[in-house]
Write a structure and sequence with these properties.
By secondary structure, this protein is mostly helical. It contains five helices and no strands. It has a single domain, classed as 14-3-3 domain (Delta-Endotoxin, domain 1). The longest helix has 33 residues.
Length: 124
């Protein structure tokens, strides 16, 4: 890995660039449901070791993002079910549910774009 890439990663607030420590942080963050921290550490890992990722790291990447997408899909479906159950006259509740549905949908789109960019780093 190039020395300037490590310096860039360290300047972005990443104190750890060792792949073992990054994977450990990712696993711990995932276990504690700190998905934003895990995503950030994955981005650092991919930025530093993109093409050099091991099979285990790639598999964990796939499993992590699949479970993250499933989480937001379930959340979105839950909001859809709640929206069907709430009477139409309760406009405020419908607005709150709609806002939460938009947020969940936005997260799914953002995650998918993030995965596409990460996959581009794998293969380019």
């Amino acid at each position: 890995m190039k020395e300037n890439e490590r310096a860039v990663a360290m300047n972005e607030g990443a104190q750890v660039v060792d792949r073992y420590n990054l994977m450990l942080r990712i696993r711990i963050a995932n276990a504690l449901s700190l998905f934003d921290d895990a995503r950030q550490n994955f981005q650092i890992l991919i930025g530093n070791y993109g093409k050099e990722l091991t099979k285990e790291e790639r598999n964990f990447f796939a499993v992590f993002y699949k479970s993250l997408l499933d989480k937001f899909r379930k959340e979105y479906n839950m909001y859809m079910d709640l929206q069907r159950e709430i009477p139409r006259r309760e406009i405020l509740k419908h607005r709150i549910l709609r806002d939460n549905m938009y947020r969940a949908r936005y997260e799914v789109v953002t995650i998918c774009k993030e995965v596409i960019v990460s996959c581009d780093l794998f293969y380019n």
